[in-house]
Amino acid sequence: MLNPSTSLAEGTSLEIEEVFLDVFINDQRKDTVLLLRNEGRFFAGAKDLQLWRLRLPDINPLTFYGDDFYALDALRGLTFKLDESTQSLAMQVPPRLFEATLLNGQEIDFSAPSAASPGGFINYSLSANHAEGLTNSTGSLDLSGFGSWGSAQTRILGLDLNNQARAIRLESTWTRDKPMELTRLRFGDAISGASSWGGMVRFGG
Predict the structure, then answer these.
(1) CB within 8 A of 11, min separation 6: which ones?
(2) 180 burial via Cβ count (<10 Å: 0-12, 13-18, 19+)
(3) Of the candidates 150, 91, 96, the residue with the CA atom closest to the CA atom of residue 120
(4) What is the mean pLDDT for each group of 10 consecutive residues in the chain (205 residues)?
(5) CA 145 to chain centre
(6) Element (H or E) spanning 36, and its range?
(7) Which structural domains are found in the chain, ordered by start?
(8) Are strands 6-7 and 202-203 parallel, antiparallel or unpaired?
(9) Global pTM value
């Protein structure tokens, strides 16, 4: 026990014990800090309380070597539990004991993006197989174009099986983005998502 020269809060005796404890607030670890203990009561430094954004109680603080300390039980609604084995103090603090947080929002004037220059691209893939005098081939072709009007895409599958050639249009889409309205317009065919009990399904738009 230490008996320093102190200016004590009302009703507090002179027997003060200094303890270093790991402090947890609402299950969040804060730091290892110096607290004062007096007959089962704990006192936290004003600087630590302010660092934790806790309101200082409206009572006379305990002044210990020039620093102010406040009794935790003066914060109505705060509960704590001391774990001697881990030298930790777990506190549960209701929201009303925290200082308010003010956010100054700023209005941002977004400017419309410049229109896209016209362009396009082609993707393709081909494969062929020859066996027993027969040649089978398949291929896919993607045609895409874009500009200020949006973007369009068409995918075509080509087959040449047993000397029977044919082409199948898989899907065609037209997409128009309106970024200032946070809107996207999509017209045409689409593909559903896959799941553990089924595959993808193509459907016309």
Answers:
(1) none
(2) exposed
(3) 150
(4) 42 75 94 91 94 92 90 93 93 93 77 84 89 84 91 90 82 88 86 76 68
(5) 36
(6) strand 28-38
(7) 17-97 (3.10.20.410), 119-195 (no CATH)
(8) unpaired
(9) 0.47
Region at 70 (left for phi over 0; alpha for psi -120 to 50; beta for the rest): beta
Our CA angle for 153, 140, 123, nearest 5°, is: 55
Q: How many helices, marked H, and strands, marked E, lie in the chain?
A: 1, 15
Can you give the pLDDT at residue 134?
80
Q: 88 forms bridges with which residues in the sheet? A: 22, 83
Residue with tokens 């738009």, as numbered in its chain: 205
Copy the structure tokens of residue 95: 């929201």
- Rounded-to-integer distance, Cα 173 and Cα 153, Å: 5
Q: What is the dihedral angle through the alpha carbons of 13, 18, 21, 23, rounded to the nearest 10 degrees? A: 50
CA-nearest of 39, 45, 51, 2 to 21 is 45
What gap in Å lies between CA 2 and CA 17, rounded to an integer?
6
